[in-house]
Amino acid sequence: MSTPMLYQSRNDAGMLKDEIHITTGLEFLHDVAIDTHFVARGRIIRVAQVIATNPACIGLGLE
């Protein structure tokens, strides 16, 4: 529902280039990347890579 939106990524992905797939979501939230099960699945690396490739974006991790 956000812009950008993560899809088809493993939980441990993000250390290498092209492991994170980003697309445009439904654009309900502009410039906010949301990732669920944030702490339990250790997804901080995924969100960090999204923010690195979209510097105007805010990363939001939901548990």
UniProtKB/TrEMBL annotation:
Domain of life: Bacteria
Protein name (record): Cyanophycinase
Record lineage: Bacteria, Pseudomonadati, Bacteroidota, Cytophagia, Cytophagales
